[in-house]
From TrEMBL:
InterPro entries: HATPase_C_sf, HATPase_dom
Transmembrane intervals: 40-62, 68-89, 101-122, 128-161, 194-215
Descriptive protein name: Signal transduction histidine kinase
Cross-referenced Pfam families: HATPase_c
Domain Histidine kinase/HSP90-like ATPase: 342-427
Organism: Microbacterium lacticum
GO molecular function terms listed in the Swiss-Prot or TrEMBL record: kinase activity
Keywords carried by this UniProt record: Kinase, Membrane, Transferase, Transmembrane, Transmembrane helix
Keyword Transmembrane helix assigned: yes
Length: 431
């Protein structure tokens, strides 16, 4: 797996290499807040439309009429889609389609209003029942259309109401037509009142549209920030996993493969050749189980004695007859399996180094454990080495011992000189 460097990466929000592995998690995060805000807006709009629709319906059935004709048909055309929209918004099913039908139906009712009210007596001081549905039409447009069409709808509904109201007053009995044409007396005031009503309806429509736009924009912004955070975490986790795997595989290569190759190259006696074969077999086994080795095994607690036996078993695999000097207090509790495995592997690497570089001269291993800590000492009487001269690409000490103990929450120290080398592995229990 290759992770691009920082200069090569796309922005996190659009990087398909980061988004793709997230799958449904990223998709859910991208619309988490937006979906919930949309649901809240739907319920609020449904409640508001129910209140205004009830008021309009009560005024509609209370309006005197000569017969159940055009106006009755318009009442059905207005309130049937409105009821369907309120139900859809409340349940969350077919909300957009029902809102679109309601918005179109209310515009049709406004356009046909002069036909329904032709010849009827009109009280200029009383708003017709259609007045209460103007903002309902805008709210329906907010739930049904995009922002540009919402604005167009608000202007259209307000202007259409003003026009049909003037036409209604002009055609009403009582000589209003002449007054509206000449602009004299109370009829001029009526025309000004109609314009003010239309403007007031337009202002309310603007408030409704602005509130819907702000809530939705805020929700989209929150979802975008959440999506970027999830993608950033995924990218960091991916990079960390790659680096951990690289270090683990490098340590594995040094512990097993490189050590086996060096042992095979230097083998000059039957015993050394047998040791090289054993190390090669171990290397192949660990490579075949690399995925399990990277995970460092189970974290289930094991007794300290398993650390002692694990070190002795590893030495036996290296054709060494080694007895560990163990001093384990009876009060010493078990250690986590991950820690025990790290100590055994680090000790095994130290033993392998003593065999390869010191010929196993004076090799001795001691384990001390009590209720607070566990300590392992691996020492030899070889010629030692110069730590500063060790190439940076050699990971026997850095990766397989020091880094491995650090990853398990422990510490490794190496002391070397002309009298030999001592590797100290220490792990203290958390307090």
């Amino acid at each position: 797996m290759t992770v691009p460097v920082a200069a090569e990466r796309l922005p996190i929000a659009t990087d398909p290499a980061v988004r793709a592995p997230l799958g449904d998690i990223a998709g859910g995060a991208e619309r988490f807040t937006e979906a919930r805000v949309e649901r809240i807006v739907s319920l609020v709009v449904a409640l508001g439309c129910a209140v205004l629709g009830t008021q309009a319906f009560l005024n509609a059935i209370a309006t005197p009429r000569a017969a159940w004709g055009w106006e009755t048909a318009l009442i059905a055309l207005a309130f049937a889609p409105l009821a369907a929209m309120i139900l859809a918004l409340t349940t969350g099913a077919f909300a957009r389609g029902a809102s679109r039908v309601c918005a179109l139906a209310l515009v049709a009712v406004l356009a046909l209003w002069p036909v329904a009210s032709a010849g009827a007596a009109v009280d200029p001081s009383v708003q017709p029942w259609i007045w209460y549905l103007l903002n309902v039409a805008t709210a329906a447009a907010v739930m049904a259309f995009d922002l540009v069409l919402q604005i167009v709808w608000a202007v259209l509904v307000s202007a259409l109401y003003g026009a049909v109201r003037l036409i209604q007053l002009e055609g009403a009995p009582g000589g209003t037509a002449q007054g509206l044409v000449t602009g004299q007396g109370v009829d001029a005031a009526q025309s000004v009142g109609v314009v003010l009503d239309a403007v007031f309806a337009l202002i309310l429509a603007g408030v409704i549209i602005a509130l819907g736009w702000m809530l939705r924009s805020a929700a989209v912004g929150i979802d975008r920030a959440r999506g970027d955070a999830v993608a950033s975490y995924a990218a960091a986790a991916e990079a960390d996993a790659v680096e951990t795997e690289r270090v683990a595989v490098a340590a594995l290569m040094h512990d097993s493969v490189l050590a086996a190759l060096i042992a095979a190259e230097r083998a000059s006696t039957p015993r050394e050749e047998a040791l090289a074969v054993t190390m090669a077999r171990e290397a192949l086994t660990r490579l075949a189980n690399a995925e399990q080795d990277v995970g460092e095994g189970s974290d289930e607690a094991v007794p300290v004695a398993s650390v002692v036996s694990g070190i002795e078993r590893a030495a036996a695999e290296l054709e060494l007859s080694l007895t560990v000097d163990a001093d384990v207090a009876s009060s010493a509790p078990p250690v986590p399996g991950r820690v025990a495995r790290a100590i055994v592997l680090a000790a095994t690497q130290a033993i392998a180094n003593a065999v390869q570089h010191a010929g196993a001269q004076g090799l001795a291993v001691a384990v001390r454990a009590d209720e607070r800590a566990i300590a392992v000492r691996i020492s030899d009487s070889g010629p030692g080495f110069a730590p500063a001269e060790v190439p940076v690409d050699r990971l026997g000490i850095r990766g397989s011992i020091v880094a491995r103990m650090a990853a398990a929450g422990g510490r490794a120290r190496v002391q070397t000189g002309k009298d030999g080398t001592t590797v100290r592995l220490d792990w203290e229990r958390p307090r």
